[in-house]
Amino acid sequence: MSRTASRTTVGIVGGGPAGLMLSHLLQLAGVESVVIETRTRGEIAETQRAGILERDSVRLLVDSGVSDRVLREGHEHRGIQLRVDGVGHRIDFQELAGASTWLYPQTDVFLDLAEARARDGGDVRYGVSESSVADVTGDRPAMLFTDADGRDHEVRCDVLVGADGSRSMTRHSVTGRQEYVRRYPFAWFGILCAAPPSCDELVYARSDRGFALISRRTDTMQRMYFQCAPDESVADWSDDRVWAELQARVAGEDGFTLLEGPIIAKSVLPFRSYVCEPMRHGNLLLAGDAAHTVPPTGAKGLNLALADVRVLAEVIERAVREADRSALDHYTPRALDRVWKAQHFSYWMTTLLHRTPGAPPFDARRQLGELTHLVTSRTASALLAEGYTGWPRSGRDGGATRPASGIWPEPTR
Ligand code: DHB
Questions:
Q1: Which of 201, 225, 289 for mutating ligand 1's site (highest number of atoms within 8 Å of CB)?
Q2: Confidence grade of residue 408 (pLDDT, cut at 50, 70, 90)
Q3: Beta-carbon neighbour count of residue 178 at 10 Å?
Q4: pTM score, two decimals?
């Protein structure tokens, strides 16, 4: 069967939040794009992912006209609780960094973006199969795929973007990658449960049994995680066993207990730090999880993907406007500035709160020393508050072009 040939300016492989946000920003800049995605819209919407947006991610959604639903239905969090061996300590983001985060699950970010793309006539092909890319380092790279109706296509473009997640097909189509990987001897066991919230803010708990995170979703549905072995089997964990473990990890003299309910979903989340450099290979540019993954502690993954595509939209717009691909040279250094800050932050928050199996007792005592410093020093807790709420755009990350929000005052830092 013959392929239908067409062309566009930017071909985007991956219709998750990174690919859709890029396509949205490019349209605002007058640049045409086509997005292909192997999953259906329904499949993506059903995937459970993290739930915390940095202040600038919220601004991007609202100010670029995707949706202001996050402001109406999301929950502003002005701090978090660090719980160390059953004793709670509040980290006040507003006081320390002049910023908040928003609890707004990635699923909702995706739904808002998918809706905005449909509203604005964006070309997004969900449910494609047999997708591949060709001539990625040449002048006219292509996306090849079979659409949801079984028709074969070849879309030629000027620039190709790989926003196709951690198992990225586009990344594997290029050679000469420098990869940086760090593995961890643990994973997270994640649950979704039908219960009222146990607390107003997120609780990050360190205990001798290991880490636990008490997050939220709605007034009737909650998300929680606890550190487990990488090869943990979901089948070994009855609801009762899950609740006993979570309760034990947060228990303390203040009597804090979790409000329990039926567990709707259980899964084991992989854990690794990964960066692929450079993020540009000829006319293929990698964004989001296709270029880097972070361990989930601190919820940087989605925020980092949105920061990537904000930079990417700017450099692609310049390259198109000036008909000069050298503008694309700025992508890797600008994006990597933030990527490595976020890598450090996610690694740091992970090692700060998790128990490393088999580590010498020294390590646990040192960790407690670090946590004591963190919760008693304004300087130390400000570092956490700044990293968690997201570093302002600055220097190579493009501070000068930050859009004025009008919704929030500029931070006082
Ligand atoms: C959530 C996930 C995280 O990794 C995190 O650090 C905070 C919250 C969540 O899914 O709600």
A1: 225
A2: very low
A3: 8
A4: 0.94
